[in-house]
Fold DNA-directed RNA polymerase II, subunit 3.
Amino acid sequence: MQTYEDSEPIVRIRDLKKDRVNFVLENVDLAFANSIRRVVQADIPTVAIDMVEIEANTTVLPDEFLAHRLGMVPLVSVNCDEAIRYSRDCTCLTGCQYCSIELRLDVSCHDNKTMEVTSNHLEVIPPTMGEHDGLPGEELTKRGEDFGYPVGKNDPATPPVLICKIRKGQELKLRCVAKKGIAKEHAKWSPCSAVAFEYDPYNKLRHTTHWFEADERAEWPLGENAKEEDPPRDDESFDFNAKPRKFYFEVETDGSLGPQEVMMRGLAELQTKLANLILGLKAPPDIDMMNGGDSGMQPVSGNPPGGGWAGGSMSPTAAGWGNASPQRNTGGWGNASPAQNASGWGNTSPAQNAGGWGNTSPAHNAGGWGNTSPAQNAGGWGSSTSPNTSAGGSGSAWGTGGQQGWGSPHANGWNV
């Protein structure tokens, strides 16, 4: 028997208008339906006012308030992917005709009546070639006649967006720059004003809890989507493995893009995201490791290496620079061995550090240059901090009181 997971998705459009669409999506899971909702809201590029330069403002509203209201005015963004560039992808310095659109607003009231300043007062400045233009492109040829205009400016049936109200003697003059972006950066670039979907109108899956006082069915009336499904029976047992399979979408746009373009571009963006995810999950090509030569390039293993830089082996290491072996490290520079570090520069071994340059061992430090060991400092340059017997005496000279040499009580040399 074929289940809905094996069948293809089904889309049935129930209502389509200029600024909204209502459809039913079947044979998909909840995660996919929610992904469509999120992509449609936040990942489709549009054009919106991003910068406002106010020259004169004698209205009752502050500059920041007006700039925010202007940024939320929807602008026509049909074919935005090809008609304009992102500012970060353009080679211009301060904005050009390929990555920005200039709008101006200059109104003043001279009557005794209150004047409403709306989005219809915004005028789009035609693009002109400038000295800071980016690389030439085909963006201008991909734009429609009303690209970048406020929604409803040339449509008497669409009411404009109110910006502010002014009285006699008040003036508002400003310049705006619109740029391309997505709603993940700011909500003003979202092409949708509301996106919602519903599933399981009878709450058969019990994904929510209805709070009620007396009668649940009376206090929680059913919506129009309940007509699409069969009502539950009172004697029907609860299915713990049931999953939602039908989703009722309602997508409302702000007019910058049509509902059809919003859904198609949303699906294309979701497909691109999934393709990038699959590409990122693929295993990278194997890199041939160098065999022989420098032993420091070998991976960590249980075989004791003979030496190398920053050897990470957990087995006895004869010598090496920066070794981190926890067992008998007979010598090296920068060794961090906790036991029986015979000698080395910068050793930090807490036990039986026979000698080294700048040793900080707390026990059995036979000698070294600048030793700070509190016990058995046989002699060294400036070894006057030991509380115990010092062969060279307090403040002994270089190499006196023991074997001659720097930091070694057994033989001449630096490291033995």
